[in-house]
Design a protein that fits this description.
single chain, 467 residues, mainly beta, Methylamine Dehydrogenase, Chain H, four-stranded antiparallel β-sheet, 28 strands, WD40_repeat_CS, WD40_repeat_dom_sf, WD40_rpt, WD repeat, repeat
Length: 467
């Protein structure tokens, strides 16, 4: 399966060749502006594509994505060699505000990462030894993994907006995408922390004459970097959308999850939100270089998506996988996925069969939150009952189960070892990509709002008194 070129050139530049003088500086008699030839920070912004006179051509845009290794996990995270393998470490996050790393040989804690002030909703790996997380505390945070027994190191806190953040993923060029209850997909710089793009399609435009948007839907619950400059997002407006992260443009919108239909029962008949559409809860790679991926939904279905013509969504297949809403889906091996559901089961599927073949059904004590691959026989289950459960699904037996956090686990992510197929002296882009359509001071407004909201929350907590 050959991917088409998705580079169409950089965005229209919103910053010129010289720094714009802000009002607070213009009216400050003590302020002395730098000469253009002395403004090193602005020169760096021009170098990174965030300012200048002429937008990048498609060739210049593609050049920014080049790494010494053509098959880089930064630009092609969906390749099979970056999905399939036996992890050394698994990362978990929880409603207890903590992130933990676990040794997959002994299943002992390696490190704890403490700093979030509310539920941690998702974690992803970043550049081999770092972790990117998002939380209901309005932030994303960047952490560095270290030796066993040491405290996880917080590198950076990014204040996003005054709403809980539900999904995050790393992007090429030292950027990240994040979405949450503000109904906006944001691209922000991991170097400066500033917002580069606000993509508000889920909030503003939707199916059925914007029915969902008028009903208040549009919150983002899943984001997935497919390849190079293409990002997928899933929302409670029932759509999956593809975005160009370099221009902020929406490339494709599709509904794959279409509600309970006739199974909704008499109380739900006529209610569009449950009968005809459903929230997209999670997406995962299938080892197909981002040209195919899977999503799951509260309507009990899994959809396998095909990305045609580089950036157009097509439903490849859809099947009912559970008797209740599906909360998570994960890669479990070659052409194999695992699903977690409100029916208190985890199921393993051979998705490329017709119809998809159920390989294993495992009952869980509570509702499992997430699942990932340990090896060809074994999965790691993050439990809603605060446990980790290691299960050999081919032999249908528990390897181990233990309490891992003080509250519900939210997510689990495998960290694959650096094997020859993945090893290269330079897997990563060297120069940050700063394409943007949001300028100062607008690119800091949301962060300021998040900080102010957290100050109010902490003040109210510290000064609480019963009436």
């Amino acid at each position: 399966m050959e991917a088409e070129n998705t580079f169409q050139g950089g965005p229209v530049l919103v910053n010129g060749i010289q720094r714009t003088l802000q009002d607070e500086d213009r009216f400050n008699p003590r302020f002395k502006p730098l000469l253009p030839e002395e403004d090193e920070a602005w020169k760096e912004l021009i170098k990174c594509g965030g300012a200048g006179e002429v937008a990048d051509t498609a060739e210049q845009q593609a050049k920014r994505y080049e790494t010494a290794n053509e098959r880089s996990p930064e630009t092609h995270p969906g390749l099979e060699e970056f999905c399939y393998g036996t992890p050394d470490v698994v990362i978990t996050c929880s409603m207890d505000y903590l992130i933990k790393t676990w040794d997959t040989k002994s299943y002992k804690v390696i490190q704890e990462f403490e700093g979030h002030l509310n539920f941690v909703n998702q974690v992803v790996t970043y550049r081999e030894d770092q972790i990117l997380s998002c939380s209901d505390d309005y932030t994303c945070r960047l952490w560095k993994m270290g030796a066993r027994g040491t405290t996880g190191k917080l590198l950076f806190t990014y204040w996003i907006n005054m709403y809980p953040m539900k999904a995050v993923c790393a992007l090429p060029g030292q950027r990240a995408a994040v979405g949450g209850l503000d109904k906006t997909v944001r691209i922000f710089s991991l170097v400066t922390g500033c917002t580069l793009f606000r993509m508000m399609g889920h909030k503003e435009v939707g199916p059925d004459k914007n029915f969902f948007q008028l009903e208040g839907c549009g919150s983002i619950f899943s984001v997935l970097h497919l390849r190079q400059n293409i990002l997928a997002s899933g929302s409670d407006d029932s759509t999956v959308r593809l975005w160009d992260i370099d221009t902020g443009k929406c490339l494709s919108v599709k509904i794959g999850h279409q509600g309970y239909r006739e199974d909704v029962g008499e109380p739900g008949v006529g209610w569009t939100l449950s009968e005809r559409f459903a929230t997209v809860t999670k997406m995962c790679h299938l080892g197909k270089d981002g040209l195919q991926f899977a999503s799951c939904s509260y309507d009990r279905t899994v959809v396998i998506w095909n990305v045609a013509a580089g950036s157009q969504l097509e439903v490849l297949k859809k099947f009912k996988a559970h008797g209740n809403g599906i909360v998570s889906i994960g890669y479990a091996g070659k052409n194999t996925i695992a699903t977690c559901s409100g029916d208190k089961t985890v199921k393993i599927w051979k998705w490329d069969e017709e119809p998809p073949l159920l390989l294993c059904e495992l009952k869980t004590r509570g509702i499992a939150s997430d699942v990932c691959m340990i090896d060809d026989d074994t999965v790691f289950i993050a439990g809603g009952d605060a446990t980790i459960r290691i299960y050999n699904w081919k032999e249908e037996r528990d390897v181990t189960q233990f309490y891992a956090h003080d509250m519900t686990l939210q997510c689990c992510v495998p960290v694959l070892p650096v094997l020859p197929a993945r090893a290269h002296p330079n897997q990563w882009t060297e120069v940050p990509i700063m394409y943007q359509n949001v300028t100062y001071p607008e690119n800091e407004e949301d962060s300021r709002a998040a900080l102010e909201q957290m100050r109010k929350v902490l003040y109210n907590a510290l000064n609480y008194s019963e009436v």
